[in-house]
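User: Can you predict the 3D structure for this chain?
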Amino acid sequence: MRKLLEILRMRFGSQLSFRQISRSVRVSVGTVSNYVKAFQESELSWPLAEDISEPELIQALFPDASIANRKGLIDPDWAEVHQELKRKEVTKQRLWEEYCQAHPLNAYSYAQYCHRYNQWRGCQKRSMRQLHNAGEKLFVDYAGPTMPIINPDTGEIAHNAQIFVAVLGASNYTYAEATLSQKTEDWLGSHERAFEFFGGVPEIVVPVFVNIVVAST
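Assistant: Here is the predicted structure, written as structure tokens:
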């Protein structure tokens, strides 16, 4: 309830953008948008009456939501979340925002969402545990997604760069770079630059599949 009121205050009292509000109260932009839209479509106006109660505000903004559905926070299907996270370009942030869209009145904060997912995952049966000694193994491969190289004159995509990733097993210390291709010369050149970055050569170099999300800035 306090978060809902804070979103409305920031939007209509301080004229902040959806993204600014999202960062401040730590909810998704979609959730902020839903609350603001519901308020604009209601019969309420800003500023709110001082004596308005929580049930009255929720009823005004979400008249189709039953009282039963407003009680308590709802856990998503963690097994489904776990499977979705195995897909390329799927992140916990993205799944949490979809979860907030589905349960605007009963959603956990992002921090609690991640905490409860980690708790669920910690209770699952582990099939294998690997121990890595410092400097022993370097895992290398190309990430699945590519990065577009934009022509600054035309704004068109001139080429799709491949993303080489190298990760030390013991520390997860990571090196990544973009190359024009996955040809032998690029592959070997990326290894050489990775060794220079780490300041040495590991005992073993292990080519593996790397499932990470590459986000442009």
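Strands lie at 137-142, 147-150, 157-168, 174-179, 204-207. The chain has two domains: 2-122, 137-207.
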